[in-house]
Specification:
Distance between the termini: 33 Å
Number of helices: 5
Largest sheet: 3 strands, antiparallel
Radius of gyration: 20 Å
Strand content: 5-15%
Order of helices and strands: EEEHHHHH
Shape: globular
């Protein structure tokens, strides 16, 4: 088996390296690491958003090898929005977070906001928002009349 240069224990498979966790944790406390994780997610989401739902052959045909942003237009998806939503809830409630807290935040920050069409959300999110507007409480709001699809998940 071929190995990665400089690391004889990291096997190379099919021309790609196998990921290994770092030996030492990232510097900074949990909040700094959480901010870094959210920033990394947002950058990755922005880089990938223009190619979302495209097959690799379609991406190559349209842009060739992508090595940066393919557009100057703002990019990103509900993936980043919901990660930030979840992070805000965890920062506010910590390990005491409950389903009721999540439901209340969805109503306050998402469902009861006059946002027009909820852009970027999948069928599950749209269905849950509509169910919350109709007064269905969790967990029924996430199970009623829309569970047939969750995008690529």
């Amino acid at each position: 088996m071929e190995t990665v240069a400089g690391n004889p224990t990291a096997p190379r498979t099919g021309g790609t390296r196998t990921a290994h966790p770092p030996d030492e944790p990232a510097p900074g406390g949990p909040r700094d690491r959480a901010r870094g994780a959210l920033l990394g997610l947002a950058v990755g989401d922005a880089l990938g958003a223009p190619a979302e739902n495209m097959r690799p052959s379609e991406i190559r045909r349209r842009w060739g090898r992508i090595e940066g942003f393919v557009s100057d237009d703002p990019a990103g998806t509900d993936d980043t929005e919901y990660a930030i939503f979840s992070g805000l809830l965890l920062a506010r409630h910590g390990s005491e977070l409950t389903v009721t807290d999540v439901e209340r935040a969805w109503r306050l920050w998402i469902a009861d906001v006059d946002e027009g069409p909820f852009r970027g959300a999948g069928f599950s999110e749209r269905g849950t928002l509509e169910n919350l507007r109709r007064g269905l409480a969790a967990p029924i709001s996430a199970q009623h009349r829309h569970a047939w699809s969750d995008g690529l998940a």
